[in-house]
Amino acid sequence: MPSETLWEIAKAEVEKHGSGGEGDGLEIGEKSVFFIGSKNGGKTTIILRCLDRDEPPKPTLALEYTYGRRAKGHNTPKDIAHFWELGGGTSLLDLISIPITSDTLRTFSLVLVLDLSKPNDLWPTMENLLQATKSHVDKMITKLGKTNSKAASEMRQKMWSNLQKDHQDFDSEKRKVICKTLRFVAHYYGASLMFTSKSEALLLKIRGVINQLAFGIDKSKSICVDQNKPLFITAGLDSLSQIGSPPVPDNDIGKLHAHSPMDLWKKVYERVFPPKSINTLKDIKDPARDPQYAESEVDEMRIQKDQELEQYKRSSSKSWKQIELDS
Q1: Which helix H or strand E contains 310, and what residues bound it?
Q2: CB neighbour class for 162 (10 Å; exposed up to 12, middle 13-18, buried from 19)
Q3: CB contact at 8 A, 162 and 194
């Protein structure tokens, strides 16, 4: 009886994988993690630590991408994690649509990084980023629902991932407002909440959570709800009864005229940390004019070209006026 040819062996192997056999465990997994948040909030630093890259973080220009690989075991293919980072705070919301597509939704996680050293900017930054992201995700789920209604339904039930905050010291009452508010927001979105800083121990804990999102590593069960310490609460371990009511006197709650629980927490937070005016919160829309991307030679040439353009516009305007007079 003739032995099998190489082609027949390869064909049998492919059929075994496709039928759900032992080869399923060798499939390469791909997940995406999207970092958004405060400008200069530390997003790049976290990504570099997760990828074991010992290099100084550079300013993020618009939207940046990198990836990492990790094997789950010996002699197994390496899973791939796609890391996206949105720069510019809230000034480049249109770019959110690039990494979030109907194809990536089911393996996608969102990490929101907020800078607690600027508490007055915290709520507007968080609200603008989450609203823009949620709006785009809703569109993608609707698009997905036209071809796969079951998958779309599952996605609506599992929308968000992790909220991560940069830890900062405040007096006890202000710290209480920040901690309770962020715990409520994280619980509302079914997210994890982590405070971090440049502390090596905290960065290692953050790295563990991000690796869980990126590579499916077991989730940490540790928890810290002590407001005098950096909070660390993974999704599902908190509750409204543990969080408690908004930190405001009972007789004042009725005066806030909130339309929803989220609106109530927002009003309570903004009583302690009033948002800055729109003008001061508005980020630079043109990255070319952002000081963090300054390059003297390029900027000097840009100024020269801008001046030449203005001169051309003025001369063109005079020429048109002269033509009108002559006619």
Answers
A1: helix 296-326
A2: buried
A3: yes
Q: In sequence order, what DSSP letters do the residues of 134-179 get, joined into one string?
A: HHHHHHHHHHHHTT-HHHHHHHHHS---EEEEE-----HHHHHHHH
DSSP notation for 251-307: HHHGGG--SSHHHHHHHHHHHHSPPPPHHHHPPPS-GGG-GGG--HHHHHHHHHHHH
Q: Distance (Å, rounded) from C-alpha 233 to C-alpha 187?
A: 10
pLDDT in tens, 85-143: 999 888 889 999 999 988 888 888 999 999 988 899 999 999 999 999 999 988 988 88
Closest CA to 136 of 115, 163, 155, 118: 155
Report the Cα–Cα distance between both ends of the chain, in Å, rounded. 100
Condensed to tens digits (0 to 9), the pLDDT of residues 238-265 reads: 999 999 988 887 677 777 888 899 999 9
> Which candidate, 166, 172, 46, places its Cα nearest to that of 116?
166
> What span, in angstroms and rounded, lies between the C-alpha atoms of 162 and 46?
13
